[in-house]
Amino acid sequence: MSANKRKATRKPVASKRWTGRRWHLVLAFWLVCASVLVVRAVDLQVVEHEFLAHQGDIRNLRVEPLAANRGVIRDRNGRPLAVSTPVVTLWANPQEAMENQQQWSKLTGNPIIDRAHFARRVKAHASREFIYLARGLAPEQAESVLSLGVPGVYSLTEYRRYYPAGEVTSHVVGFTNIDEQGQEGVELAFDKQLTGAPGRKKVVRDLLGRVIQDIELIEPARPGEDVTLSLDLRLQYLAYKELMSAVQRFGATGGSVVVLDVKTGEVLAMVNQPGYNPNNRSGINTSSLRNRAVTDLFEPGSTVKPFTVAAALEQGMVTPATAINTHPGYLRVGPKTIRDHRDYGVIDVTTVLTKSSNVGTSKLALSMDQQVLPAMLERFGFGQPTGVRFPGESGGVLPIRAKWRDVERAALSYGYGVSVTALQLAQAYAILGNQGRRVPLSMIKVDEAPQGERVIGTDTARAIVDMLETVVGQLGTARRARIPGYQVAGKTGTVHKLTATGYAEHRYQGIFAGLAPATDPRIAAVVVIDDPDQSAYYGGLVAAPVFSTIVGGALRAMHVPPDKPEGVIAGEPDGEGRT
């Protein structure tokens, strides 16, 4: 065989051997790859399973807070005065958002969160993981942002406080801030009780940050406790309407009304003017936030005279029929001349109250030991807080002196030189109506009337109430305080307004404090009209009619039986109260 033929025969054999080797190499390569994959799979699924599962969880699992519902504030009949409604809050993770800036354009022109606003907020807090974007949104408002799918934007459920009665109960109930923390009124006084404890839950989020599954409830939210106030919303509305009407009618700058249950000490109504809407506090005047009935002080004027007479009765110095000479209608005490509206001559103690004689009460005060009258006023609660737990309550001013000058004692007897709140004055009259017993005042509903403590004797208290009935009678200064079907006992007061520079010459406060029904008092109320127009400023003109309407409505709402023959008209149109 030739050499060329032998070469041709060897070539195919060598080629075949090389092809076999290549297949082995390829097979070996794939076997190695498969082995690597198997080893890696074992490593991932067995060796590093816990670590990788944890890493996956922290990227998809989140622990989110569960908002706690704040307790409801209700009136004595269960009507809601403050409730929390669920709202949506939008928040962002700036670190995540910064990695997806190209998607911020989706927010252009959005009415809730505009692109420019979003960019400013995120860039200003680029190193943080949580910032608020918008709070207290309705679900549809929040969805207009969430539906855009902007990375780093999330939502959570919170609560917003709503006040169904609005301005009518605002000074009592108060309000919370955006975090539902009490800022004023009952919301602040009972904040700890009303505030719940937030919970926590574990959830799974998708790539867009949406919650797709609740995994585990770690800790349930604990809602706050409800608070039931002593207020009767029906009476509160009535008092609010009548006070606002009087303030407008007489051109006053403000006013206050307090209505108490004599037996239980409960505050049934408390309103002030000017007011504010707690549901919309934008542009509000901060002076409107004050609950003037418990914070603002005024000199009570002639409404203090019953307590001067009570001190004299308790000392055994006089009886309601004891004669006092008030002639010639004025009394010189030191450098001051004390005057009556006219010369009443010789009158009895009852008429001293009926006609509101400054001379008569001054003579009573000057005939006592100098510490008797201040001590009596202190026993009635003057110069000390009432204890209703209301934020910012003033204790009033009752001077403490080792020695009183005669002019100071005389002025104190008719309500000058002492300052009170409307609530303090109402408490003092409630003591008279409760047969001389003082019960603690309460903004919270009381289930059982407390026993209280004795301030003056039952006979003295009854005598004072009987004398105060004459003030509302035909010859008294408060004929406009009458209530059809009910006996009324009360006292007018008209005082010069005290300013930073002293007594204002032509500015006044008209006051009426009273009880009804007089035969067995259930209601004590005080009406203060602040700085009314000069054409009508006497307490008997501006405050007494407000008392009549409010207390008359309260007695009927409480189903208190009438104690006076029917057909009696409350107040003559020409009646004038002078003090």
Description:
This protein has helices spanning 3-47, 49-60, 94-98, 115-124, 139-146, 170-173, 185-189, 191-194, 233-249, 292-295, 305-314, 349-354, 358-366, 372-379, 406-413, 422-433, 458-471, 539-542, 544-557; strands spanning 61-66, 73-74, 80-92, 131-137, 153-162, 199-205, 211-219, 227-228, 254-261, 267-273, 323-325, 330-333, 336-339, 346-348, 437-438, 453-454, 489-499, 502-516, 523-530. It is built from 19 helices and 19 strands. It is elongated. The strands form 6 sheets. Strands 2, 3, 4, 5 and 8 form a 5-stranded mixed β-sheet that branches. 43% of the residues are buried. The model is unreliable at 567-578 (pLDDT under 50). By secondary structure, it is of the alpha+beta class. Helix 11 (305-314) crosses helix 14 (372-379), helix 11 (305-314) runs antiparallel to helix 17 and helix 13 (358-366) crosses helix 15. Helices cover 34% and strands 21% of the residues. Pfam families: PBP_dimer, Transpeptidase. It is found in: Membrane. Residues 67-214 form the Penicillin-binding protein dimerisation domain. InterPro entries: Beta-lactam/transpept, Beta-lactam/transpept-like, FtsI_transpept, PBP_dimer, PBP_dimer_sf, PCN-bd_Tpept.
